[in-house]
From TrEMBL:
It comes from the Archaea. It is an enzyme of class 4 (lyase). Gene3D superfamilies: 3.40.50.1100. Its EC number is 4.2.3.1. This is Threonine synthase. InterPro entries: Ser/Thr_Dehydratase (IPR050147), Ser/Thr_deHydtase_PyrdxlP-BS (IPR000634), Thr_synthase-like (IPR004450), Thr_Synthase_bac/arc (IPR026260), TrpB-like_PALP (IPR001926), TrpB-like_PALP_sf (IPR036052). It catalyses: O-phospho-L-homoserine + H2O = L-threonine + phosphate. One of its GO terms (biological process) is L-serine catabolic process. Keywords: Amino-acid biosynthesis, Lyase, Pyridoxal phosphate, Threonine biosynthesis. Catalyzes the gamma-elimination of phosphate from L-phosphohomoserine and the beta-addition of water to produce L-threonine. Its cofactor is pyridoxal 5'-phosphate. SUPFAM superfamilies: Tryptophan synthase beta subunit-like PLP-dependent enzymes (SSF53686). One of its GO terms (molecular function) is L-serine ammonia-lyase activity. It comes from Halocatena salina.
Amino acid sequence: DAFSGRGVWRYADALPFEEGVSVPEGDTPLHHVPRLESDVGVRSLRIKHEGMNPTGSFKDRGMTVGVQAARRLGVERLVCASTGNTSAALAAYGARAGMETLVLLPAGKVAAGKVAQASLHGARILEVDGNFDDCLDIVRELAERGEAYLLNSLNPFRLEGQKTIGFEILERFYEDEGRFPDRIVLPVGNAGNTAALYKAFRELVAAGALDRSEMPTLTGVQADGAAPMVEAIENDRDSVQRWTDVETRATAIRIGNPVNAPKALPGIRETGGTAVAVSDRKITDAQQSLAENGIGVEPASAASVAGLRKLRRQGVVDADEDVVCLTTGHLLKDPDAAVAAGNDPEPVPNDADAVLDHVV
Ligand code: F0G
């Protein structure tokens, strides 16, 4: 493949295959944000913008490996449940591999850009009268019956690909600063990325490339209306209790049953991390702050920055920390949220002088 050895596949030694179904993915920017950094009040702040992947979210890193596994296994039909981004990525990678793709979405709760992607890439979109967790229950049953190959983050091949987020962050940060970041803050839905980052750290420790004490502190952020992981951390529980009623404007993380919690909770604990919930209002504020720095993200992504702000104010995050916030999806994923949070268009006359009069 023309993309072997690039992006995600630069880390093929740490992946189960030599190459994958590739668009290509990975190699996303680690932005400096000096104004936001001083505003938040930490030694350094970087934004790892996963919205810059080919379908606009980190899911592509998982799919390049996961759909390759499906191809090797010779399965005929791919399936996922999704709050939107997984369905967009699976539709694109399934199309690239020439495979039939089904996606189950919670009706009316998926942002427009994501539905558009799944639709144009040719997935069959099955809208369920229920939330994401209900969709995942159905998909798991279809997979157990052997009717389709599941490509949610329960699929371990997905998490293998998503480990490369961690590799890239550590490698790039070290190149720039000569040290590893103290903390990685990320939005949490199913806790797949949290689990994948923790696995990446453990593999680096096992390879002697990272000292155990240097593992960045994993810090998860959820929306107030969908925060079962935060509840588990706050109550020091080993498992998560499912929330059946979930609501947030950050629809990507509108999830009440984080299926990777058993893999993610130990990662948060071992790295000395925590989990925090933020309001939709604070998520929108953070989305605007990132946009003011030229970085366009969807609401769920901005939760990372909102969570960092809250933890810094509470003194949980220290002023001398080096922090990386993960922004998981692109602004254009959810155009309605962007329009609601941004400036309104101003009608002006069709005349240069009148336009100038208007703007002064
Ligand atoms: N951010 C975005 C933009 C997402 O789309 C998701 C998950 C997450 C964060 C949470 O990541 O599950 O690894 O904790 N979206 C899934 C989907 C559920 O169907 O697109 P996680």
